[in-house]
Amino acid sequence: LRDWNSYGPSVRDSVLDLLLSRPEWTSSLLSSLEDTCVNPADIDATHRSRLLTSRNRGFKQRAHAIFADREGKRQDVIAANRSALTIHANAGAGAKLFEKHCSSCHRLGNVGMEVGPNLAALKDRSPEALLTAILDPNRAFEAKYTNYTVATADGRVLSGLIAGESTNSITLKRQEGKQDVLLRSEIEQMQASGQSLMPEGLEKDLSPQNLADLIAYLTSLPATP
């Protein structure tokens, strides 16, 4: 846990799997989350669920106390825009909104870039789930979509997803599919933001009507495996 902020997604997964394998180590992880040595936002949905549904009642209570505040912050935003689920929507208008606001990271059909997850392959594409995913992108996202900031020896500061790792280099992928390949010898510091590459705050650019149209477009597309 001491070097947590410098770990890439695959290493973090292994660390969390190991810590959750023994009660005394799980307790240490929870302690680190409670004093924010490890940011609660860094825990991906799968491992967060394991903590929240732990058979150990004490661990379960501690986990709920840790994650409740984080999940509640965006709940008011979702509630304020819930009318998007009931008003008349136009999928055609939603397609234009997708191209403007989403296509730099998501690809659907022939539009967009493959940076974020494939929206047509989401397990739950219900309007409710999509509204939550759009307005609270950090609630449940895979570790591989965590945004990292990397400082290099020549003074550059870069950010993006870690799209590839080797013993000698890492590959950062950012919006519009742009990539930076960095030798590990060039890197002075690498730190995870604890947040998805997708930013919060889209409600500032999208009205409830816009959200309704965008959701209508996303749900109109055929699902893919």
Structure, explained:
This protein has helices at 9-19, 23-34, 45-52, 57-73, 75-80, 91-101, 127-135, 208-220, and strands at 107-108, 111-112, 146-152, 157-165, 169-173, 179-183, 187-196. Helix 2 packs parallel to helix 4 and helix 6 packs across helix 8. The strands form 2 sheets. A 5-stranded antiparallel sheet has the order 6-5-4-3-7, with no helix packed on it. It has 225 residues and is α+β, with helices and mostly antiparallel strands. The model has no long low-confidence stretch (mean pLDDT 86). A hairpin with a 5-residue loop joins strand 5 (169-173) and strand 6 (179-183).
Brief sketch in words of this structure:
With 225 residues, the chain is an alpha+beta fold. Helix content is 39%, strand content 18%.
Average pLDDT, to the nearest integer?
A: 86
Largest sheet: 5 strands, antiparallel
Order of helices and strands: HHHHHHEEHEEEEEH
Helix content: 25-40%
Give the overall silhouette: globular
Poorly predicted segments = none
Distance between the termini: 36 Å
Strand content: 15-25%
Give, in spatial order, the strands making up the sheet with the most strands: 6-5-4-3-7
* C-alpha Rg (nearest Å): 19 Å
Q: Decide which structural class fits the backbone.
A: alpha+beta
The number of strands is 7
